[in-house]
Amino acid sequence: MDTSKRSALTTSVIYTGVPSFLTTSATALIWHPLMTVATRQQFAGAVSGATQYSGFFDAASKILRNDGFASLYRGFLPRLLQSPLAVVQWVTYEAFKEQAAKPRQLGFDSSTAKYAALFTGSRCLVTFVKSPLEIVKERMQVERSLAKFDVKKRSMMENIKFVYHTDGVRGLFRGLHVNLLRDIPVAWGIFLGNDYWTHVLTANKFTGFGSFFAKDKELAMAGKGYKLHVNVVAGFLSGLFAALVTHPFDVAKTILQTQSMSRLLPNAAPPKYRGLWDVLKRVTIERGPKFLFTGFLVRAAHISVGSMLYLPIYRFIKLNWGEACKVLFPSLAPPPAPPTRRPGAGPVAGAGSTASGSVSAVASSANPMTSGASPASRPTACPVLSVDQSVAGKQAEASSSSSSKHNA
After folding, report:
1. What is the pLDDT of residues 151-178, one digit of tens each?
2. Among 56, 82, 205, 278, which residue is least crowded by beta carbons within 10 Å?
3. DSSP string across 82-123
4. Which distant-in-sequence residues (6+ apart) come within 8 Å of 380 by Cβ?
C-alpha cells in the first residue's frame, strides 16, 4: 500500500472510527437491559423447562423480582467488546458514500458497486468475528431462566471454555448463517435506509436518491448538518423497516445459539432443532407464527429508537471530533490547495529567499490549520485524502505552467 492510500485509511479510521466506537458503546449501555428481557423471552422456545413469560412486562417484572436489576446487564462485557467492530462498518460505508458522491451521468457505476460490495463484505467479516462473543453474550443473558435447575452462572471465559469443550470450535460459530441473513439486511437497512429517508425528508420526494450523496458531502464539507427532526425521523423509519424484515431470523438465531444449554439440565436432552428452516417450521407448528415475532417491539425500539439517537449522536461527535483532530493530528489535515495565477501574471514572488517566503505565506493563508481563519470558515468534516486529490493538484499546476509559457 503506497503512502497516500495508507494516509487516507489512517485518516478515515481516526475521523470516523472514534465517533462510531463511542456512539456504539453508549447505545449498548442504554439498550442492553431491554434486549436481555427480549432474549429471555425468545429462549423460552429453545429449551424445554426454561422459564416461560406471557409478554415483555411479565418477563421484566419476573426478572427484576427473582434475579435483581444487575441480571439485566448479564452479558454486557461481550456486547461491549463488539463495539470496536463498528469502526469497520462506518469506515467502509463512508468510503461507499465518498465514491457515490462523485459526479457521473448514470448514477451508480461499477466503482460504486465495488464499494457497496466492500461494505457488504465488511459486514460479513464483522458478523464472523463477533459470532463467539454473540453466543457467549446470549448464554449469559438466559442462564438465569434455568435457575430452578440449579444452573450456575458462568463468566464470559467460562462460557467460552464450556462451549469449546462441549461442541468444539464449531459451537462458537453456531447459527452464523442465520446471523448473516439477519445482519446484512439490517446493516443496509440502517445505513442506506437512513440516507434514503434523509433524502426524502429534505428533498420532499421519493425519487432522485442518486444525487443525495454529492449534496450530503457538500453539506458536511461546509460544516453543516441536518435538522434534528430529519435525523430523528430518518433514523426511526430506517430502523423500523430493518427490524420488521429480519425479526424471525433474530428469533431463530437466539434459539439455535442457546439450545445447547439443554445439556445443563438433569435429563441432558440433546439440542432440539437442526437448522434455520427447521426452527421456523417447528416453532410455527408448536407455538404459532406469533412466536417468531417474540420480542419484536423491544428489538424494533432498540433498532429504530436506537437509530434515532445513534445517528444524530454519531454526526454530532464526528462534527466536533473533526475539529479536535485538526489540533491532535495536524499531519492528517488536508493539504493546502496550490496557488493559482492568472495567465501572464508573472511569477508569484522574486527569486531567492523572497520567493520562498512568499510561497510559504500563500500556502499558510490557504491552509485553515495555520491561518487566522475563524472556526466557522473552516471545513468541519474531514475529507478523506485520496490519490485523486494528489493527481488533481498536479494537473492544476501543469495547466497553470502551460498557460504561463504560452503567454510568454
Report:
1. 888 899 999 998 999 889 999 999 999 9
2. 205
3. TGGGHHHHHHHHHHHHHHHTS--SSSS-HHHHHHHHHHHHHH
4. 220, 222, 223, 319, 322, 323
User: Measured between alpha carbons, how far is 302 from 35 in angstroms, rounded to an integer?
Assistant: 8
Give residue 54's identity as a one-letter amino acid code: S
| 37 residue type, one letter | V
pLDDT for res 359: 39
- What pLDDT shows up at residue 388? 45
> C-alpha cell of 262?
439443554
Q: Measured between alpha carbons, how far is 186 from 381 in angstroms, rounded to an integer?
A: 26
The one-letter amino acid at 130: K
CB 249 within 8 A of CB 283: no
- Cα separation, 351 vs 354, in Å, equals 6
User: CATH classification of 3-326 is 3.40.50.300, yes or no?
Assistant: no
pLDDT in tens, 90-144: 778 878 888 888 776 445 556 678 778 888 988 999 999 999 999 999 999 999 8
Q: Which sequence spans correspond to the domains of the chain?
A: 3-326, 334-407
The answer to whether residues 153 and 143 touch, using CB atoms and an 8 Å cutoff, is yes
**Contact criterion met (CB below 8 Å) for 226 and 198:** yes
* 191 C-beta neighbours (distance < 10 Å), count: 23
Which amino acid makes up residue 286? Answer: E
The string over 288-298, giving b where at least 16 C-beta atoms fall within 10 Å of a residue's C-beta and e elsewhere, is eeebbebbbeb
DSSP state string for 162-231: HHHHHH-GGGGGTTHHHHHHHHHHHHHHHHHHHHHHHHHHHHSSSS-GGGHHHHHHHHHHTT----HHHH
Q: Please give the model's pTM, rounded to 2 decimal places.
A: 0.69
| Non-local CB neighbours of 166 within 8 Å, separated by 6+ positions | 260, 263
227 and 198 Cβ atoms separated by less than 8 Å: no
